[in-house]
Amino acid sequence: MKNLAVLGATGSIGSSTLDVCSANPTLYRVVLLAAFKSVQKMLSLCLLHQPKYVSMFCPHARLELRELLKQADSKSIVLDSEEELLQLLGSNEIDSVMAAIVGGAGLTSTLASVHAGKEIFLANKEALVMSGQLFIDAVKSSGAKLWPVDSEHNAIYQALSPRLQDTLGYCDLSAEGVNKILLTGSGGPFLNKPLTEFSTITPAQAIKHPNWSMGQKISIDSATMMNKGLEYIEARWLFNTSSDQLQVILHPQSVIHSMVQYKDGSVIAQMGNQDMRIPIAYVMGGTQRIESHAGNFDFFKSPSLTFMEPDLKRYPCLQLAIDACYAGQKATTMLNASNEVAVDAFLTGKIKFTQIAELVERVLNKPLNDASERSIESLLDIDLQSKLAAKAIIDQGLLC
Ligand code: NAD
Ligand code: MG
Questions:
Q1: Which of 31, 59, 102, 131 has the fewest CB atoms within 10 Å, measured from its CB?
Q2: Which value, in Å, is the radius of gyration of the alpha carbons in the chain?
Q3: Beta-bridge partner residues of 55
């Protein structure tokens, strides 16, 4: 039995992970649950899964949860600080970590788990987008085992040879006969909406993904296709692709979760229901297939499968992300940071849907102070500067 930490336990991926744990009670012992501030949700998770430790990022939530756990006679220990969380992640008490905190907030804990050489189930794509080569180098030097949870990257991983799977981050695709990684995306809820109506899109409309049920941020990212852009950068790092080895294909039904094209003309696709418990069960099963409770895919009830090229005018965020991918680490960190501010501002009614891409582009064009050496500290500094720049642009009303 492995000892599991679930970072982002109260979220959509966290909840699917705990479902997979419950479906396979002899595989994982839930030792640590971590989240931001949802006290009631965390309380019920603690009572159900009885983790030895709980971590809440928000200090008020920590105090409230500690009191409620005491009243419920629970033995779960609420950690006092983020330092304690990072220490625990590096200790022998944890074997495997589900990294499912949303956004750059997950970088420190995900990287701490990588440095400690743990088995990492990576859902938190923003951590990899922000730190790229540093993340991959840390995986290599610590001997951490990295598993992609994002459904596309998980599909690609499943379609690769064991040699490529074992060298994730620095694999040689062409030596194994891979021509191209084909990253599929649905196009989100606005695939067919007239472009003239984009400026009036509301958060409620944007959050409604046609195929997947997900957290708020990734749902908005899916509507702008920034999510596919972040995934493009994620794929670049995980599969060590060159620009001609990576292509985005729209596939509105989201039945195929991504594909690998080989030089002999074969295309290997992974497909199934749109349920994150499938990739989660795949990574948690390791070398064996385990129960996910996601159900079997019914071919006879499915519509036909269609494919098309993405229209980058409709999805300027996708273009910005692809450009940032080749501009370098500073650009991808700026892209991610400004997008986080933009999504939050859109959700709280401060900016329009179309201003998300505009804001990201403006921040990318801003000169920032930048250390000559890449380090996590310098990336966190770029992250902070970009967020401040984005907020200033909004506050000063500089968007069109
Ligand atoms: P969510 O919003 O449902 O949950 C986010 C979780 O992160 C919550 O538990 C929240 O408490 C926690 N969190 C936020 N800030 C934190 C902080 N500072 N410290 C500790 N915890 C914090 O998000 P989600 O949809 O589950 O997505 C999580 C990650 O997985 C994202 O990076 C997303 O891109 C990725 N992902 C999600 C899906 C999906 O289907 N939901 C699919 C692929 C990848
Ligand atoms: Mg995905």
A1: 59
A2: 21
A3: 34
Q: Which two tokens stand for residue 308?
A: 């098309």
Which tokens is 346 given?
A: 């859109």
> DSSP secondary-structure letter at 179?
E
Distance 324 CA to ligand 1 centre (A): 23
User: In one letter, which amino acid is 48?
Assistant: L
Residue intervals in the chain for CATH 1.10.1740.10: 174-272+301-394
Domain 174-272+301-394 has CATH 1.10.1740.10: yes
pLDDT in tens, 213-271: 899 999 999 999 999 999 999 999 999 999 999 999 999 999 999 999 999 999 999 99
Dihedral pair phi/psi, residue 261, rounded to 5°: -105, 130
Our mutation pick for probing the ligand 1 site, out of 214, 233, 238, 343, counting the most ligand atoms within 8 A of Cβ, is 214
Provide the CATH number for the domain formed by 2-148 in this structure: 3.40.50.720
Q: Encode burial over 247-270: b for 16+ CB neighbours within 10 A, e otherwise.
A: bbbbbbbbbbbbbbbbeeeeebbb
Q: What is the pTM of this model?
A: 0.98
Residue 343 in contact with ligand 1 by CB distance below 6 A: no
Condensed to tens digits (0 to 9), the pLDDT of residues 199-212 reads 999 999 999 988 88
